[in-house]
Request: fold
Amino acid sequence: MLGFILRRLLQSIFVMLAVSLIAFSLFRFVGDPVAQMVGQETSIEAQENIRERLGLNDSMITQYSRFVSNLSQGEFGFSYRTRQPVSEMILSRMPATLELGFVSLIISLLVGIPAGIYTAIKRGGVIANALLISTLVGISVPTFVIGIFLIYIFGVELGWLPTFGRGSTVQIGWWSTSFLTWEGLKSLLLPAITLGVYQLTLTMRLVRAEMQDVLKTDYIKFATARGINYRSLYLNHAFRNTMVPVVTIIGLQLGGIIAFSIVTESVFQWPGMGLLFLDSIRYVDIPVMSVYLVLIALMFVAINLLVDILYFVIDPRVRIRSSKGEVVQ
Amino acid sequence: MIAAIKRFSRENEFAYLFLNNRVAQIAAFIALLCVGGAALSQWIAPFNPYDIASIDLMDSLVPPVWSDGSDARFLIGTDDQGRDLLSAILYGTRLSLFVGLLSITFASVLGVSVGLMAGYFGGRFDAIVMRIADVQLSLPAILTALLIDGIARGILPQGQHESLMIIVLTIAIGLSLWVNFARTVRASTFVERNKEYVQASEIMGMHPLRIMLVQILPNIMGPILVILTVDLAVAVLLEATLSFLGVGVPPNQPSLGTLIRIGTQYMFSGEWWIVIFPSMMLIVMVVSINVLGDFLRDAFNPRLR
Reply:
């Protein structure tokens, strides 16, 4: 097991180095960093001076290793556009995105897993079929259109819920939360549903497929024959064995949620990291762009690693296979 | 005619499955309608939304014909600049489909050739390519596309950016979708290359390129076709999303995403039609492509037969 985790860890480090190399080349080759910092009147000598002081004349390898060591120490540089430290900008935006992602994940799991189990058990039933058809729509309708429709129905026509921003937030240290005010919670609802719908349909389809496979197995037939009550049969015997793929998907979903939060945040003007990234693309604010990229990659890699380790905890079969030296996919 | 189709369908399994699947038929019909409407937009659209001379600002924000204050010339109303919404949607669909098809072509040519080579030759090339694919697969397509778009913005000079935007968009979407093709083709090629017909061709001294294209490729067309359909829907959605976010096609050539983006600004003041109709068009198109993709997946999956 230790060998497997070490191998995955090495792989993760490789991925992070690759991403930081991309971020570095973005930083270094897209546009001239010095020209971005100084005005047009600055003389060439002065520019050369700055270039020397920033170490831009050093060899590429020196610059790259300095870039990586700065990143690992949380030194992210300054935004071209606002002149603020990037770390401050991202930290102030992070709670909004994380809270939004957390709530939408909860929504997608709380609805998706029971719906998946239900459609697997009541195969061919009217409600089950209706749920299945609605998942096809959930996959086909883009996130921003879902958001727009929700805004139109609940914000414009009914006027029940706020349609942009976080409402009022409570500051706890550097973390600003919208969980503690009524208005904040109300503002959170529409964006979280928008972000959660796609993940919800994925969860539901996956749980359903896995449940159907498990329900066909002999041990379930045997358990049915033994006369175990259905509740226990479905939840304890069947659902538990679908947990491995479900955990994988939840892990991958976290990544999807963070990525699609860019779109959701744009629709609802939600002041999170995604909106910051979008602005940085629009204004070619390279430092913000590259740091966002590195942070997202870090989250993905950490989540994937965690999911792999969770496999061991949940599924004994993986443990046996990997101890025999087989490749674990 | 019908007898001929029936005879054909008895011999051709694929046609048989299609003729017995009402949902797939409806989806194909709607998809054809969308593609046809888009392709013929130049001739069937009542107005040309690119022709500034025909646009009158006095006609802006006219509601659809069944509401008060409508104009019989504009069936589903006009947008903020006085463009006929129906024409704008038809032209927008054309642009969306054009970008979608172009980027999926780019993605499939790149992915299939890389996958064929990786699966056929194996070795170091295979290892490197699959590592890159792993890294890219760990980032969602929308993020990759946004990033490539952002880099292009930085590299290209300001003036040229607008005119090259569609090419940039195509490359961005294509590069974010090639991995699906590469992985599937690699896996299938891996299986095929150990079969006897490939070995026979090798012994005959056939050039590897010829073996890959003439021998292996036709045998792995099934899965490629499925990904092609499913990813076309993804490409259309990516284009719409990028345009909606304001980093897609330039505003003077509205795609469906751009139209929806414009529409959201008028949603709060009661002009709902500008946002609702383009959204409906997008949804109908993507749902029909996805249903077709599901059908193809089942049709090519021998386990489900």
Summary: Chain A has 14 helices and two strands. The two ends of chain A are 14 Å apart (CA to CA).
